[in-house]
Amino acid sequence: QVTHDALIYSTSLNYNPVPTGNPVVVRTSPAAVLVECHYPRRDNVSSNGVKPTWAPFWSTLSAEEKLPFSLRLMNDDWSTERVSTIFQLGEVLHFQAGVNTENHTPLRLFVDSCVATPRPDRSSSPQYAFIDFSGCLVDGQLDDATSTFVSPRPRQDVLQFAVDAFKFAGDSSNLIYITCHLKVSLADQAPDPLNKACSFNKASNLWTPVEGTWDVCSCCEVRSC
């Protein structure tokens, strides 16, 4: 039973004696004893002694249920976060997506999609999806672009990609807002069409994955993953 303050386990100990000896008299009687164990809902509960070095259960649970994702603009050598968000056409935007996996089994990060809009509203128009179809960097197919995922990754929980600067035609504000959808899979799970990072290689005219077999990118060509 769960109450406001406690978690209660209860059971009954039942004693049902079998009459012996003279059937006219009895010397024992049945009994039922209720046993309850009350555990405070806001305390640590364990069958072992709690060691002072243990992290409180509630903080561990909180950390395991939440994944802190990040998306940052980096400087040209990827060493630090870029201070300025102003770019000239002809420059390259260096993005670094990451996730803190400190309290998790190893995870691999993917960028499912990235959409640019002239206003903060993700659903505003016009809009330009430069990563789409569960990890296809479609901007790299354009003749005037060299956009690509960086391979190999620096770590499994980090993914870097470079995109040539652009603006919306006819938009005098020259502002772009970028919204990306990040996700993770288990690091030992093989990449598949829904969990991948694929760039278009103009030299070979083929899609290439950051990791995994070539066939995980085949759906990028037909633009249906």
Automatic annotation (TrEMBL):
Q: What is known of its domains?
A: The ZP domain is involved in the polymerization of the ZP proteins to form the zona pellucida.
- Highest taxon of the lineage: Eukaryota
GO biological process, any: positive regulation of acrosome reaction
**What is the membrane topology listed in the Swiss-Prot or TrEMBL record?**
Single-pass type I membrane protein
Query: What is the recorded name of this protein?
Result: Zona pellucida sperm-binding protein 3
What SMART domains does the record point to? ZP (SM00241)
Q: Which family does the record assign?
A: Belongs to the ZP domain family. ZPC subfamily.
Alphabetical keyword list: Cell membrane, Cleavage on pair of basic residues, Disulfide bond, Extracellular matrix, Glycoprotein, Membrane, Secreted, Signal
Q: Does the keyword Disulfide bond apply?
A: yes
- Sum up the protein's function in the record's words: Component of the zona pellucida, an extracellular matrix surrounding oocytes which mediates sperm binding, induction of the acrosome reaction and prevents post-fertilization polyspermy. The zona pellucida is composed of 3 to 4 glycoproteins, ZP1, ZP2, ZP3, and ZP4. ZP3 is essential for sperm binding and zona matrix formation.
PTM: Proteolytically cleaved before the transmembrane segment to yield the secreted ectodomain incorporated in the zona pellucida.
Domain ZP positions: 1-205
**Which PANTHER family does the record associate with it?**
ZONA PELLUCIDA SPERM-BINDING PROTEIN 3 (PTHR11576:SF2)
**In which compartments does the protein localize?**
Zona pellucida; Cell membrane
One Gene Ontology cellular component term attached to this UniProt record is:
egg coat
Record-linked InterPro entries: ZP-C, ZP-C_dom, ZP_chr, ZP_dom
Spell out the molecular function terms from Gene Ontology: acrosin binding; structural constituent of egg coat
Pfam families for this protein:
Zona_pellucida
